[in-house]
Protein: Transporter substrate-binding domain-containing protein
Amino acid sequence: MKAKKWLLGLMMSILIVGVLGACGNGDDKKLVMLTSADYPPYESMDTNTNEIVGFDVDIAKYITKELGYELEIKDMDFNSLITAMNAGKGDFIMAGMTPDEDRKKNADFSDIYFTAKHLIVTKKDSGIETTEDLKDKTVGVQTGSIQEGVAETVAETIDIKIETRNRIPEIIQEMLVGRFDAAIIEDTVAAGHFKNNPELTGFEVKEVSEAGSAIAFEKGSDLTVEFNRVLNEMKDNGELDKLVVKWFGGEE
Ligand code: ARG
Structure:
């Protein structure tokens, strides 16, 4: 009788330790990606499934699967991403984010996985055809984006009024109702808005460097090397090209 109780106790403890261990493991094997899902085709909310989809999401799924992690995605304003990651709210950021010197102070970045150009987007009848035409105009950019910096560079030589909004669709809306004369948006993202709003057009801002996208990690994170390894595999084995075609190529 006594012996049996003792055995039962032992079995219970083994069970408890086992369950705890499994939980710990499960936690370790999940990564949280932070993004700003206002940026198709990189990331946007699929209103049918209520899931975030896009180029970045597909890359993240491929890499995390390859490394044996489960993936969870959290949506927030672009401007909050790095702070949120460093506050422990996520493990990495994919949001079409361009590494620049300021950001590199607060995050480590993977290699670049895609490069886009900056466009000045405006209504076809605005009469704005060159950067110089922006003189005395109101220009919208996403808060905390590289494009905000591009606008500031333009403002050094041409008098423009810069307006910021947290989400790209808000900027498009302000332009459509005539509160903004123009906006600075990446070409690949602008393309989708041209399709939905035929009254919009755009031209390249040649004065500034292109916007490369990279994955951001907490400073010193081991994930940077792991992700880079798979990212470069994707470049070599054609997976990345496939995703480029899926999300950016073959319009219509
Ligand atoms: N590439 C630009 C940047 O890093 C814009 C990215 C905006 N991304 C987004 N998901 N809204 O500033």
